[in-house]
Model the fold of this input.
Amino acid sequence: QKEVEQNSGPLSVPEGAIASLNCTYSDRGSQSFFWYRQYSGKSPELIMFIYSNGDKEDGRFTAQLNKASQYVSLLIRDSQPSDSATYLCAVKRAGNTPLVFGKGTRLSVIA
Amino acid sequence: DTAVSQTPKYLVTQMGNDKSIKCEQNLGHDTMYWYKQDSKKFLKIMFSYNNKELIINETVPNRFSPKSPDKAHLNLHINSLELGDSAVYFCASSQVPGANEKLFFGSGTQLSVL
Done:
């Protein structure tokens, strides 16, 4: 069973702080790594993707990937109450294989 | 225009009934998917179609039958509904299957089986 593990939370951070969301995966053949954000009652939306080891920054978001440790993380700088949502980590092999999601981490940013 | 649209948004029905959910995407994508999200928010792939051909079928009961009349549409028909089928069903699409695919989701259909 190929799995993606996330701490379900809730992770509570004060407004303006850095939120750190973590994800581990079991399939060493995974090649692509995604972070989706899902607001309550809404559909998931892609916020970041990363394919190579290291960091990738996009605005207030930084994705970090370490394939040797099978670990991917998402940092949110200057957290805002509007960042409060569930963050889903997803990984994928190449080819016609499904995107495998973790169960998500619920983030709560306290004003 | 909504990129990936699915109907209905809510579906409440009795056990044993048959129901369908429809999905359409106007993004010009080749690949469409059905995902199921259970009460614990776990999002799991059910089916994937590429240009009307089934490419992924993840051990879903055969009461669930997807149909893709063309690459812009992927419908889901469910026979003999059971209590455990209650969940949110998301349709999604992507440009091409492969490691680089990014999914665009519909707004979801909340199915409640009584």
User: Anything to note?
Assistant: Chain A touches chain B through 26 residues (CB under 8 Å). The radius of gyration of chain A is 13 Å. Chain A has a mean pLDDT of 93. The first strand of chain A starts at residue 4 and ends at 5.
